[in-house]
Structures are given as structure tokens and as C-alpha cells.
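**Folding the chain**
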Amino acid sequence: MKKIEAIIKPFKMDDVREALGEIGITGMTVSEVRGFGRQKGHTELYRGAEYMVDFLPKVKIEIVVDDETAERCIDAIMSTAQTGKIGDGKIFVTAVERVIRIRTGEEDANAI
């Protein structure tokens, strides 16, 4: 099993969700996060004073899938979240040792 974490631009969330739904992904965790990388930040004007905004709004998607589905998920995220501009985000893929559904006690693939 793999855990896929994708940090994307907020306005791309609906497109990514649709693309993942089309390949059969029925569940995910989505968080509103803030951060920066090469994009750095930007300056804004507030009441006549200029200040630096270091952390930019992003959306973090977390999905746990079987090994066979992982590559299709990555491709779906890449194709829909990419704008070609700086700040498109990142995808992190890690191995998952064990998954347990709390309600039923099901484990691993049955718990996904």
C-alpha cells in the first residue's frame, strides 16, 4: 500500500477530485494548509503599509491506495494540478505498513 500526499493550488482541488473519482478513488482527506517553497512569498499592501506574506495557501490531499492504483493516482493528480507555473506543488509517496478500520477492525486492503 502507498500513501500519496499532494500539495496543490487551491483552485485545482475540484479538478483533482474529479480526476481521482474517475479512476475509482472514493475517499481522501483534504486539508487547507499554508507554506512556501521556491515560490517564496509575495508582498501585499494593507492600510498603506507593505508587508511580506511568507506562507501561501495550498491544499493537501492524502490518499492511501494499493500499490497497483498508486501510479494511476499520481498521473491523475499530475495531469490535473499542473499549470506549468511555479507553485504547482509536490507529490510525496510513502509506503504504508498497516491500515486498520476502527469501526470493524478490518485491516490493510479491506480497510482502505
The chain is about 20% helix and 35% strand. Residues 49 and 110 are 55 Å apart (CA to CA).
